[in-house]
Amino acid sequence: MAMGSRVLALYHKTSNTLRSYHPHLPKLIAVVAVGGGGFVAYNTLNGSNTVDPSVKKKRVVVLGTGWAGTSFLKDLDSSQYDIQVVSPRNYFAFTPLLPSVTCGTVEPRSIVEPIRNIMKKKGGDIGFLEAECFKIDPQNKSVHCRSVKQANLEGKEEFIVDYDYLVVAMGARSNTFNTPGVEEHTHFLKEIEDAQNIRRNVIDCFEKASLPNLTEEERKKNLHFVVVGGGPTGVEFAAELHDYIKKDLSKLYPTVKDLVKITLLEAADHILGMFDKRITEFAEEKFQRDGIDVKLGSMVVKVTDKDICTKEKSKEGVSSIPYGMIVWSTGIGTRPVISEFMKQVGQVNRRALATDEWLRVDGSDSIYALGDCASINQRKVMDDIADIFKKADKDNSGTLTVKELQDVVNDICERYPQVQLYMKNKSMKNIVQLLEESKGDNEKESKELDIERFKSALSAVDSKMKFLPATAQVAAQQGQYLAKCFNRMNECEQTPEGPLRMRKDGRHRFHPFRYRHLGQFAPLGGEQTAFQLPGDHVSIGYSSQWLWYSVYASKQVSWRNRMLVVSDWTRRFIYGRDSSRI
Amino acid sequence: MAMGSRVLALYHKTSNTLRSYHPHLPKLIAVVAVGGGGFVAYNTLNGSNTVDPSVKKKRVVVLGTGWAGTSFLKDLDSSQYDIQVVSPRNYFAFTPLLPSVTCGTVEPRSIVEPIRNIMKKKGGDIGFLEAECFKIDPQNKSVHCRSVKQANLEGKEEFIVDYDYLVVAMGARSNTFNTPGVEEHTHFLKEIEDAQNIRRNVIDCFEKASLPNLTEEERKKNLHFVVVGGGPTGVEFAAELHDYIKKDLSKLYPTVKDLVKITLLEAADHILGMFDKRITEFAEEKFQRDGIDVKLGSMVVKVTDKDICTKEKSKEGVSSIPYGMIVWSTGIGTRPVISEFMKQVGQVNRRALATDEWLRVDGSDSIYALGDCASINQRKVMDDIADIFKKADKDNSGTLTVKELQDVVNDICERYPQVQLYMKNKSMKNIVQLLEESKGDNEKESKELDIERFKSALSAVDSKMKFLPATAQVAAQQGQYLAKCFNRMNECEQTPEGPLRMRKDGRHRFHPFRYRHLGQFAPLGGEQTAFQLPGDHVSIGYSSQWLWYSVYASKQVSWRNRMLVVSDWTRRFIYGRDSSRI
Q1: What CATH code is assigned to A187-333+518-575?
Q2: Residues 6 or more apart from B98 whose CB is under 8 A from it?
Q3: Which residue from B minimizes the CA distance to A323?
Q4: Which of the given ranges, A18-27, B127-136, B382-391, has the highest pLDDT on average?
Q5: Does the ipTM exceed 0.95?
Q6: Residue from the list B113, B128, B214 with its beta carbon closest to the beta carbon of A156
Q7: pLDDT tens digits for A1-15?
Q8: CATH fold for domain B381-465
Q9: List of chain B residues whose C-beta atoms are within 8 Å of the C-beta of residue A579
Q10: pLDDT tens readout for residues B284-313
Q11: Element (H, E) at A311
């Protein structure tokens, strides 16, 4: 089996190679004997029976080394493509542990994996360029990049990389909602450097509060930690910080420990809004017990070097609170290079790059986008309703029989997942039942359906369209999915495996991307973590469970990372967290 | 015994306390019954038999948390003093492992120990201020300090700390010899931050060399690592870097690995000049085998953003070499605050603060200096020769008998260690023999010595005066020594234990500081380390031996640090060094 599939892969590779070299050759130029393992390739042009190794492979350029980019890179068959990775970070970071890094529970190097390690393991034609892409040029199929370090490059810090396929996985930046002062005075928590800066700054606040001559009020101010945003990151940071202060810092800074205050500001009515109500309640109660001041319905309107100004939902006017340090974690915004590119491809007023269900950027043939910088523009049933009807009505009778419907129902459900979600929601078994429901009482006996009935039966399904959250899990699955598509590109071009095309002939090459939710977790400080698993399963368990979680939910985390994190935990267990300001 | 000494300590503490409160009280106000453990203190003023706890302890201010400061702090009895530590770094760093940090063999946090951890373990009145001392004011017995972080302090970032005793242990800065461009374009290797920057920069150089469009010459330039200074630090860094590149980076950057070059510039005729010739030769040969280009007799005259300009001893003119990165490690210079203080106390044209043999700053009563910022000004025998003679000549006869000499010989040898060194060098058994040597043939029978003979006998001993090297070992021993003196300050004031004062009456309070050389080690990359132990013992062994060395030579390294370093080595052994640019 393995032998057979390897030979098959070789066949595809060969035929692809030949095709790209001699595009007008008849398609069947390679005769493959599968089974016994024999392999003969007839090159009809020059009679040679070996493949020219100088034939150019398609160039895939991957922008970004986050969850999406790395997961794509890990699964991509590097023997089929000439791969170039461009990213300002030469490593992948396991971001869910970033809040732990802010307090030294885990060391930064334990949660990163150098991209070149991954490349070395894969082998093949992979290059890495430590640079930032600042312009995508779809006309010329190239990206403009700039090295992150300019010194010693003699004006060669900018360069152009050409691509046949471009995979945009540049992630997002922190969203400030254009609140004045946020960029200058707060800490984000998206990158390793952010976490390191926060760690240093927490210690700075304690050291400053320990200096002589300060009034008690000034000490309190320096020890007022404000977290803006009650999402998983903000909540975890607040919880970690509380734990760090209680277990370690209060012993090292006994004179000021009682002046510490942690405030969590959330504009909505609850923290952890995307989680089950039980988890939200548990977290809010725990924070209250811990003395973390959770202010709900509180919107930040301005940040100065001294105060953070908020507007409460329930009150008039703006109140100012002095702070020692602010961590800003209110969701994600669009990177300038992505906004610029969106303008070029005619996408405006969007947060992220729109792609089709195959992760291909709308309006572009060879550009794919995934992860936080992209969002899938799920096609509405109602937009295609006439085409769907026409496709199903094979005999062009103007009505659909049950038989006709059953022939296309799988394709419809695959192409428009909202149909299935809608039926699941209404506890319907199949599409026939859905159509039955729409019939009037006097039509119950009728076996056929006209376009109007069909329309009205499906009229509500689009309400069930789902947008995917901007999470590591989605990004990782997209990367994996896209790599699989790339690996089977030639195979699927010849024998498409996707659903029927409704507006054209034939089938889509690939199955569309389908997200499989594996659950979410929200660490709540110290040893506690809340888990929300698919179905209705909610549990509050030990933080160490993330390890188990990482095993089952993510291929990104290497065993090296896991061992390092466990060794960090052991160190912390024995010696506490390090409070050196380095 | 333990009980007795504790009672004794309590007695000293009490009497000291009473004395500082009522300085004019007769000295014997406390009657102590040692042995049975009974303790009664009579306060003659108010008849109370308890000690007033509000009595102020003497304030000791320690500047610096390096080897000297930390070792002093660790051994100081915190129940006797009110201790204030001022340092811009809130941790102690085990600096001999800094070169290992530059390449990720060891993690920075594994070699630091937060000062507040040490304080917590000690207990007592110890405060830490994360600030830099920028002025010492001996007139007002205070130091002027500035917080290392200014934000949020409302103009209170500068403050004054008063002291009764000041311990200056601020270390030194890197010496640039005023070579233009060094500050701007090279990396020093003195602090943890330096090592972290170097680590990032090495990776930067490799990433830059991997960018497209560069000529081979430009790539070579980016991968040219220059180390200036062939001392232990420079040599170890060059060796570590070579090992890192060979074992790890060459696999991750296969396309550019052959363009790497390491050059070591040393102005003297040999590297590791302070070591035994066998070690120097071994290191030079090893570097040659490794392809590290060692340029001896090469002086750097200028550094620009592109080139490093050197003057060779053997040649005319200046040659320019393009570089990717320079690490500058040519010894130590004086910190500005120390230079300023030296001017105030009338010490000019010196590299470091001059102290007497008891580490007290010349010309100051309550200021001590140790470590790299200080140097002991060993008193010359010839300067005191008349006084020594007078002191020895008890009967004022104008001549010394053997008996008279034997009474003071120990004091002379303790006060002037060069006498002993001189005798050891000449293989003499005792001072009598030394004096015999100076006699003319016709005086051999004479039993007595006049001043002129005495002078001529000792005339050469001052040539054996030794200056202590600026090493961690010296600093640590000085800290320990000074702490012991401080702990026994009252005891020794009443019963001085030092040598006879030659120019005044009585004895010195304490024995003078005596350095005990425990050997030196110079890691030569990878697993190799050269050891030079006292006596004539030289060995080339495994790097892991530093651990053994640390156990026997340094109390500074905590078991926590040792475990962390071993765990780093284990990580590296399994996974190689991390090349992420963080």
Answers
A1: 3.50.50.100
A2: B111, B189, B190, B192, B194, B195, B233
A3: B152
A4: B127-136
A5: no
A6: B214
A7: 343 344 334 334 433
A8: Recoverin; domain 1 (1.10.238)
A9: 90, 114, 116-117
A10: 999 999 999 999 999 999 999 999 999 998
A11: strand A307-312
